[in-house]
Amino acid sequence: MGRDNLIYCGIDWAERTHDVALVDDTGQLLAKRHITDDAAGYKLLLDLLAEYGDTEENPIPVAIETSRGLLVAVLRTGRRQVFAINPMAAARYRDRHSVSRKKSDPGDALVLANILRTDMHAHRPLPADSDLARAIAVLARAQQDATWNRQQIANQLRSLLREYYPAALSAFEPWKNGLCRPEAHELLKAAPTPAQAARLSRTQLHAALKRAGRKRGIEAEAERLREAFRADWAHQPPLVEDALGKQMLAILGQLEAASKAADDLAQAVDEAFPQHPDAEVILSFPGLGNQLGARVLAELGDDRNRFADARGLKAYAGASPITRASGKKSSITRRWVKNDRLNHAGYLWAFSAITASPGAKAHYRRRRDAGDWHAAQRNLFNRMIGQLYHCLRHNQAYDEAVAFPEGFAMQAAVA
């Protein structure tokens, strides 16, 4: 069958089966199918699209309420546009077709198809990122999730130690990321309770530090730990203390697994990110290394047509403010609807850029001195990501003199 009219496809996806609807540009339902979530179901879907005129040169656009999964991967082959519709937006469109608030999977598929028919221009298709960029996105997001998970478990461990083992918290306090360090893990496994820690000898402390990989300062560190563990601390009853020690070991096992996962994924990011053509430009910016740069690339992608201009990217990142006006009242506030991962990476990026770039530091201080206490860092991120957009579009490395000419001129005058 040829495509005399424009045709749109909507898919209501589920874990085991999916409902498909095809409509033409007049809104007439052309076909509907119920397919399974397997290779046979995907083939049935592609055959249905081909039956109604889907070709490599003129593919049928598809609307679906997710951006991930094998079904989306199958649909994204070739030049087909796939639109990931927000479920909340789909619910609002559903009210346009039925005031009874009835809901069904075939009906939702029809709603999604009609969203493209009426408002495709108002929705953004999934970006046409390269396979390498998508692979880096998987690794960078997984590493970020693993880091957050590790910190969450470390907070649980700290909370538990405060209940019965304050000596351990005091002993590990001088160490950076104390509870996540291998020295802390070896000592807690050697002495799960404060009573056992107080009985540790210097030899046992030496052995624990060596097992953790420490090479220097073992004698002094072992003596400091021995004094901390043998100080005068309050104790839980012995039976309760032993039970809490067993609970602590269980949480410690989770923390070690989370730490290993975060470290392994960080290594994978370090190997994959420099292979991308955009890595050289991204790493030229102050404050961006492999891990943070990979997180930025993961959310930006490498589809140059994804954002029409830098303003769109800034809004997507939540870096630019939003103006709300009604009548004589108006207010300028931060954006709440944004890419949270990119916004979080931008916060860390701006914080690092302050110390890595004299121009960024001067810009940040100037905003702070003007009374912009809460938004100075966000404003710096707004400026930096706009510069990154320009550099990626023109394949140019970061130039401090161009990025912050006012700060560069001041430095030259002082010199």
Helix content: 55-70%
How many domains? The number is: 3
Helix/strand-derived class?
Answer: alpha/beta
Tally of individual helices: 19
The profile of the biggest β sheet is:
5 strands, mixed
The coarse silhouette is globular
Strands in their spatial order, largest beta sheet: 3-2-1-4-5
Strand content: 5-15%
What's the order of the H and E elements? EEEHEHEHHHHHHHHHHHHEEHHHHH
Low-confidence sequence ranges? none
Distance between the termini: 74 Å
Structure description:
The chain is α/β, with parallel strands linked by helices and 415 residues long. It has three domains: 7-126, Ribonuclease H-like superfamily/Ribonuclease H (Nucleotidyltransferase, domain 5, 2-Layer Sandwich); 135-271; 280-414, no CATH class. 59% of the residues lie in helices and 9% in strands. The chain contains 19 helices and seven strands. It has helices spanning 39-51, 70-75, 87-97, 105-119, 131-164, 166-172, 182-190, 194-198, 202-211, 218-229, 238-272, 279-283, 290-300, 310-317, 340-356, 358-369, 376-394, 400-403, 405-414; strands at residues 7-13, 17-24, 29-36, 62-64, 82-84, 322-326, 329-333. A five-stranded mixed sheet has the order 3-2-1-4-5. A two-stranded antiparallel ribbon has the order 6-7. Strand 2 and strand 3 form a beta hairpin. The radius of gyration is 28 Å and the shape is globular. The mean pLDDT is 90.
A few lines on this structure:
This protein has 415 residues and is an alpha/beta fold.
Q: Helices and strands in order, then pairings?
A:
Elements: E1 7-13, E2 17-24, E3 29-36, H1 39-51, E4 62-64, H2 70-75, E5 82-84, H3 87-97, H4 105-119, H5 131-164, H6 166-172, H7 182-190, H8 194-198, H9 202-211, H10 218-229, H11 238-272, H12 279-283, H13 290-300, H14 310-317, E6 322-326, E7 329-333, H15 340-356, H16 358-369, H17 376-394, H18 400-403, H19 405-414
Parallel strand pairs: 1-4, 4-5
Antiparallel strand pairs: 1-2, 2-3, 6-7
